[in-house]
Amino acid sequence: MKGSDYGRYPRTRKPQNSKSVDDALKELTKPKCAGCDYRERSLKVHGLICAKCGREFDSKTRNQLTVHHKDGNAMNNPPDGSNWENLCVYCHDDEHSRELLGNYLSKGE
């Protein structure tokens, strides 16, 4: 073992894979799979508006708009967007909580 590898201030090693920051960001922001970009496609097809309450969104608030799969299957992403509806986060929570409540109440019968 080399004496210079140890000591009070060990040598810092250069990372093996030194990518540029831009390359790393591109890799992180690209879709993981072919059907994973359905959110952007749904926003283009249906616009920046909640299908339930009608609230309109702009580029600054679009992060509050979610894509709801009508049939509940997140893997069903047709190119025409027929299984999607854009819902604001509040309406999306309401939609799923209604389903849970309905399932809970139907078990009691």
**Count of β-strands:** 2
Task: Tell me what portion of residues adopts beta-strand conformation.
Answer: 5-15%
Total helices: the number is: 3
Say what the CATH topology of the domain at 34-109 is: His-Me finger endonuclease fold
What is the overall pLDDT average? 82
Main sheet strand line-up: 1-2
Low-confidence stretches: none
CATH class of the domain at 34-109: Alpha Beta
Q: Sheet with the most strands?
A: 2 strands, antiparallel
Terminal Cα span: 74 Å
**What oligomeric assembly is this protein in?**
single chain
* Rg of Cα set: 23 Å
In the CATH hierarchy, the architecture of the domain at 34-109 is 3-Layer(aba) Sandwich
Structure description:
There is one protein chain. This protein is of the alpha+beta class. The chain has a domain at 34-109: His-Me finger endonuclease fold (3-Layer(aba) Sandwich), CATH 3.40.1800. It contains three helices and two strands. The protein has a two-stranded antiparallel sheet. The radius of gyration is 23 Å and the shape is elongated. The termini are far apart. 9% of the residues are buried.
